[in-house]
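Tutorial handout. Part one gives the primary structure; part two gives the three-dimensional structure as tokens.
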Amino acid sequence: MSSRASVCLALPTTVAQAMWRGDALAAPSGQVVRSGWELLDAELPGGGWPCGSLTEVLSPQPALLEWRLLGGALSRVTADGGVVVLVGPPKPPFLPGLLQLGLAAKQLVWVQADTPSQRLWATEQLVQTDTAGAFLTWLPQARPEQLRRLHSRLQGGRALCFALRPDGVRSESSPSALRVLAQSCLLYTSDAA
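Part two.
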């Protein structure tokens, strides 16, 4: 028996399940929700966004790319009766745009949290209830140990949880099960023959 396996056997089951292990990176521990982007689903572990773990979405500008990237999965969550909770978005949610993405207005909850500590506290409290279908939380200044605590509170749950952070943190360590960098691209086609 390997030494890692013997250490895990010696721990209480709840502790062993909550333990973060380097060999579990990018491996979905439970259900996934398809992203709505076929090419992205082909690259995501398990074929979609992982439930019950923390996913970081890094982007150059907050409140710009995350809606397009996550809209398909969030609309699936609301279609299945789940609630989408927004914690501390940098701009007020634009309801007509969210409706255009297929999100149901009555299943959106906006938590106004202005400081990093308020956002983190609110998210930690909400994920422990495991009642929402998805959480989007804007955590630009979160430290790795804060993200690790949030990730450990999500484990074993059913909800999607996205920490939306600036792309400048990509060189920092992260305990997240999945970390993606969202960048805008310009598609150009030419009519010249």
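Part three, for discussion. The chain has a mean pLDDT of 86. Strands lie at 32-33, 49-50, 53-59, 84-87, 108-111, 134-138, 160-166, 178-181.
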